[in-house]
Write a structure and sequence with these properties.
Elements lengths: L6 E3 L4 H11 L3 E5 L5 E6 H9 L25 H8 L5 E5 L5 E6 L11 E14 L6 H4 L5 E18 L5 E5 L4 E5 L2 H5 L6 H10 L5 E7 L9 H14 L8 H15 L7 H8 L3 E5 L4 E5 L4 H10 E5 L6 H11 L3 H23 L2 H15 L9 H12 L2 E6 L7 E6 L4 H10 L3 E2 L10 E6 L1 H9 L1
Parallel strand pairs: 1-2, 8-10
Antiparallel strand pairs: 2-3, 4-5, 6-7, 6-17, 7-10, 7-11, 8-9, 11-12, 13-15, 13-16, 14-15
Length: 463
């Protein structure tokens, strides 16, 4: 639109104003002062009345212009503009801070805003595993009838924000690592050695063809045993997935996260973490060579509320190396007695599923105790004298059962306790220097969305 067709100098004649009105077909003209600021509006009716009153075509247009006219700022919401046009207003000029015209809104011309920049955000929850650990390792279920685990996601998340750049530069900010990694392009950032190995492995799989800035933070400590690395991977994948036309589905997201951590980064481990964080909620997951099957559990809401109140999540404040433990466990699993222990753990997992579905929480708590007894025999790296003492003392202070989450060696303990002994247990654990982490069950898995980048879009508009 040529805006000069709709403006005229306040010193111009009525004749020139009529000629301009005839050319723009809008029946009006906006009058500007010597600085180009709009000071009034003159319609063809205003000019006719001036002439009927004895005026001349050579008179200045400002003599019949109306200084009281409707105008709006460029930032005026579309909704308000539409409502004002409903009042039979012919046109609404958009004026900047200097009252210069920068746009004109008409009934037949209200443009859609040009597509601006967006950024993607995602969050993925960690999981707490109740039973079946060890059977989700490929080297186990590939040589047996199959593996099975039962877990749920909780309200501790990995958060990611992704903004696409106009150049090829890659910048990654990690609040967890308290470090920033940057390079001129993707190839360069993949060649840097350091603490960003998991993220670099993901980028190698994704292979984005654009520069970007990535912000990462988590609600949980590193090496917690909560499947945190899978949650970090899922949140990153969720962001990149928002910019794909052919988006990955939930199974593909879990598989890509597994591929990056297990194959590209070379960390030993099972499959459950990736599926848990992506799918979310209470799941019974079966593992076989032909496919992994995620069975969502329809647990009575009252049972879920009661279970949530009976569980205590305790941070031992001791980090662990899950890859090292899984590697040792893989070697130990060649022994027939360890295989039988894992098989027993799988059978127990089916029982735990049934206890949850029938609301038998006391039996579920006792099964946690049995699951821990099985698990700690898989490898001598899973527990320690310190961890054993924490568990024994917890049982002595009211816990019915519990287990160390993740591969073992440290991280978080999960305890099941009756409502009558919960205060006693918490008081004991905190008195021993351990940290209690409140949580709620999270029924949603990976969540990702796009947001208009209002800040950068605004900066572009005012340049």
């Amino acid at each position: 639109m040529q805006l000069d067709q709709f403006t005229i100098s306040d010193t111009a004649s009525l004749r020139n104003a009529l000629q301009r009105i005839e050319a723009n077909h809008q029946g009006m003209i906006f009058v500007t002062d010597q600085n180009g600021s709009v000071s009034a509006v003159a319609t063809d009716g205003d000019i006719r009345r001036r002439l009927l009153e004895g005026g001349s075509l050579d008179d200045a247009v400002i003599q019949c212009a109306n200084p009281n006219f409707i105008w709006e700022k460029p930032s005026t919401p579309r909704e308000l503009l539409l409502k004002k046009l409903d009042h039979r207003i012919r046109a609404i000029p958009l004026l900047d801070e200097a009252r210069r015209i920068v746009g004109l809104i008409r009934r037949d011309h209200l443009p859609i805003h040009a597509e601006g920049a967006v950024y993607a955000r995602a969050r993925a929850p960690v999981r707490i595993s109740f039973g079946g650990g060890g059977s989700d390792l490929t080297h186990y279920f590939s040589n047996n009838e199959g593996g099975a685990v039962i877990n749920t996601t909780v309200s501790l998340y990995s958060h990611a924000t992704l903004r696409i750049r106009d150049d090829e530069k890659v910048i990654i900010h990690s609040l967890d690592l308290d470090e920033t990694l940057q390079a001129e392009d993707l190839k360069s950032i993949l060649s840097i050695t350091g603490r960003f190995g998991l993220i670099q492995a993901l980028l190698k799989v994704i292979s984005p063809e654009f520069g970007f800035e990535l912000f990462l933070q988590s609600d949980f400590p590193m090496s917690s045993g909560l499947g945190g690395s899978a949650a970090v991977s899922a949140s990153i994948l969720g962001c990149f997935n928002q910019f794909r036309r052919d988006q990955w589905d939930l199974h593909e997201l879990a598989e890509i996260a597994y591929q990056a951590e297990r194959h590209y980064l070379g960390i030993d481990g099972g499959w459950q973490d990736q599926y848990a964080t992506v799918f979310g909620g209470f799941n019974f997951i079966e593992f076989r060579m032909d496919q992994n099957i995620v069975h969502p559990l329809r647990i009575n809401p009252d049972t879920m509320l009661e279970l949530e109140e009976c569980l205590v999540l305790c941070d031992t404040t001791t980090a662990h190396d899950s890859g090292d433990i899984h590697q040792d466990q893989r070697q130990k699993m060649e022994a027939s007695h360890v295989k039988k222990l894992v098989e027993s753990n799988v059978s127990l997992c089916y029982e735990m599923r049934n206890h949850l579905l029938r609301g038998r929480l006391l039996q579920f708590g006792e099964s946690l105790n049995q699951a821990w007894k099985f698990k700690r025999q898989f490898s001598d790296k899973i527990s320690s004298s310190c961890l054993d003492q924490i568990y024994v003392d917890a049982i002595s202070n009211g816990a019915i059962g519990g287990k160390l989450l993740g591969a073992g060696g440290g991280g978080f303990f999960l305890f099941y306790v009756s409502p009558y002994h919960k205060h006693q247990l918490i008081t004991h654990l905190e008195g021993s220097g351990l940290k209690i982490r409140p949580f709620r069950f999270e029924q949603q898995g990976l969540q990702a969305w796009k947001v208009r980048d209002y800040i950068n879009n605004y900066k572009s508009e005012i340049k």
